[in-house]
Amino acid sequence: MSTDIDDPGDEEPTLPVNISLSLGESGDMWVARDEDTGVTSQGQTREAALENLDEAVVGYHGAGESPSDEELRAMGIDPKQNTSGSLDESDVFQ
């Protein structure tokens, strides 16, 4: 959970430390925000929102795993066409 830090001796923890937690505008989702990075996540319960925030912040710091070809296909992405490049060259981010 977000209040647990892997190693208190680390200079830069990978999990959020300064968190805001609030009920969303619709009243049915909790919103958790890491105030240091600006990463925000949500969940149907406070605990779920905090767990989702932990995962999002770890991804923000680059400590995630690349999706498998099967996962890409399930998202409608052809793995052979999935290449990384500059956002300036992307048709999606114009």
What do these coordinates show?
- The chain has 94 residues and is α+β, with helices and mostly antiparallel strands.
- It has a domain at 1-63: Double Stranded RNA Binding Domain, CATH 3.30.160.
- The protein is built from 2 helices and 3 strands; from the N terminus they run βββαα.
- It has helices spanning 46-60, 69-74; strands at residues 19-23, 30-34, 40-43.
- The protein has a 3-stranded antiparallel β-sheet.
- A hairpin with a 6-residue loop joins strand 1 (19-23) and strand 2.
- It is elongated and about 40 Å long.
- 13% of the residues are buried.
- Pfam families: DUF7387.
On the 0 to 100 scale, the average pLDDT is: 79
Share of helix, binned: 10-25%
Give the uncertain stretches in residue-range form: 2-11
- Envelope shape: elongated
CATH architecture verdict of one domain: 2-Layer Sandwich
Please give the order of strands in the largest beta sheet. Answer: 1-2-3
Radius of gyration: 16 Å
Which fold name corresponds to the CATH topology of one domain? Double Stranded RNA Binding Domain
Major beta sheet summary: 3 strands, antiparallel
What series of H and E elements makes up the topology?
A: EEEHH
**Which structural class should the secondary elements be placed in?**
alpha+beta
Q: List the total number of helices.
A: 2
Distance between the termini: 36 Å
Strand content: 5-15%
CATH class of one domain: Alpha Beta
Q: Please count the beta strands (DSSP E, at least 2 residues each).
A: 3
InterPro entries: DUF7387
Pfam families: DUF7387 (PF24113)
Protein name: Type II toxin-antitoxin system HicB family antitoxin
